[in-house]
Amino acid sequence: MKNPHVLDGVAIASEIKAEVAHEVAGLSKKGIVPGLAVVLVGEVPASQIYVRSKVKTCGELGIYSEMLTPPESITTDEMLAIVAELNAREDIDGILIQLPLPKHVDTKRLLEAISPDKDVDGFHPVNAGRLQSGQPGLQPCTPAGIIEILKRSKLPIAGQNAVVVGRSDIVGKPAALLLLNESATVTVCHSKTRDLPAVTRNADILVAAIGRPGYVTPEMVKAGATLIDVGINRLTDAADVDRYFAGDAERAATFAKRGSVIVGDIHPAAFAISGAYTPVPGGVGALTIAMLMHNTVKAARLRRGIAVESI
Ligand code: NDP
Known about the structure:
Bound molecules: NADPH dihydro-nicotinamide-adenine-dinucleotide phosphate
Number of strands: 11
Shape: globular
CATH topology of the largest domain: Rossmann fold
Strand order of the largest sheet: 1-11-8-7-5-6
Helix content: 40-55%
């Protein structure tokens, strides 16, 4: 059997970021600077890392960014007022509310308050509807990144059997719709699916967005399939690390240094029998910020009626 092809998310993300930077430079000649506002409530360390990285990438690509950091005690009404102000601002094209929000804040109401034209996360029901009916709009970043990986790696989608395990509104469902819009034959699985291995073994393209470490084992995979691993699961127990990464000196060294390693939703042993796969880390996750930058520039164009050139 041929060695599986590693789908390098970091390289693809760099390519997309370079294209976005090029577009930003083109827009600046028209006097337009795309702007992203990121709202980070309270002090969740993981969220702080994500937000800093988003703001930093904006800077690198020439996108204006602004970080708003209301305290943990902020109410839903106060958050709604922030969103209304950002909706009205001419210099802001994208609004991102970093999730999760504190429990007392009504997340659904807030996400629905963002103007669909500035909804760079693609979570607003209007954008979900546009995606469902194949109309242009802002698409969720992680699922859109999956399509970019497949297309830029010249892997066929049309006519392929695509199986998506997971049906969340932010990953599984939009990924399934995007694959369907690309003319794949799509099956969506979830926790109530009967005989999951029988379904996944039929997949030419298998997308795992489950949130369970190494859940998709080699027995569940057809030889030569393309494996797209969306999962990000942190292992902190040495026995678990050994279970998933036995004999992997690099992972062992990372674990010794950091006290944790990341594993996806697909068992690493399954990659060996695939035709191509996205590694974790360095696969799908690497695309998410690049697609956010793409969406911000797309929002800037769509709002002004300027044709979208790339992607
Ligand atoms: P959710 O928890 O919202 O959804 C998980 C889905 O998996 C649900 O639809 C659930 O089914 C299904 N599921 C759970 N257990 C099983 C099972 N035993 N068999 C079949 N299906 C099952 O997770 P998300 O969609 O938000 O995230 C999925 C993964 O992707 C996580 O690891 C997350 O960290 C990662 N992620 C990565 C991103 C990236 O940038 N790379 C971005 C976002 C998420 P049911 O609906 O029936 O409960």
